[in-house]
Automatic annotation (TrEMBL):
Pfam families: TPR_10 (PF13374), TPR_16 (PF13432). The keyword Transmembrane does not apply. Transmembrane segments: none annotated. TPR repeats lie at residues 107-140. SUPFAM superfamilies: TPR-like. InterPro entries: TPR-like_helical_dom_sf, TPR_rpt. It comes from the Bacteria. This is Tetratricopeptide repeat protein. Keywords: TPR repeat.
Length: 195
């Protein structure tokens, strides 16, 4: 049986010669279209596959990703970073770092955070952190927290009896470098109580 596909002339690789090739037909000899990718001309099939792959790739990039990252800084490093920010006058950043150190259970961070809060006029929260520092620090290291809480109570004019007790404890626990300053706090608390 002869081939029903018409022949077409296509240019050959060798100049001047013509080669007869079957022409691509837009119909199938089987009589039906199946809709498969193999039924599509090769360039259209490749383009459809490329679009599908590109769509999947873009959809994958657009999906939200939730990452849980561990904080690379230790509590002590947050405390030191907070001190550096405070020295530069960046109090909001210092507060954030002190709060991170508090979350990491660094007892001294309560003292630094309380001092910063006191400086900003947030005395209620400062008082809370001074009290936490007194309980969390070893007694020998708690003298500054006791002195500063006594000073805070004095400036608010309340709980002066407790302020005097705290100031006396601070003087008793003070090292030589801080003793005079703590004695001054005690004298001022006593003077306020005797008024």
């Amino acid at each position: 049986m002869p081939d029903p596909t018409p022949l077409a002339v296509a240019p050959a690789a060798v100049s001047g010669a013509a080669v007869l090739r079957p022409a691509q037909s837009s119909f199938r000899t089987s009589g039906h279209a199946s809709g498969h990718a193999s039924d599509m001309p090769r360039p259209a099939w490749r383009a459809a596959l490329s679009c599908l792959l590109l769509g999947l790739l873009l959809a994958g990039c657009a999906l939200p990703r939730i990452g849980i990252y561990q904080d690379p800084l230790s509590g002590a490093e947050h405390l030191e970073l907070g001190r550096a920010y405070e020295q530069k006058g960046e109090l909001d950043l210092a507060r954030r770092e002190y709060a991170e150190a508090v979350r990491d259970d660094v007892p001294q961070a309560h003292l630094f955070l309380a001092n910063l809060l006191f400086q900003k006029g947030e005395t209620e929260e400062a008082e809370s952190h001074y009290r936490k520092a007194i309980h969390a620090l070893p007694e020998a290291e708690s003298a500054p927290a006791r002195n500063n809480l006594a000073w805070l109570l004095l400036t608010r004019g309340e709980k002066l009896e407790e302020a005097e007790r705290l100031a006396e404890e601070a003087v008793r626990l003070a090292d030589d470098a801080h003793r005079r300053s703590f004695e001054d706090t005690l004298e001022q608390v006593k003077a306020a109580r005797n008024k």
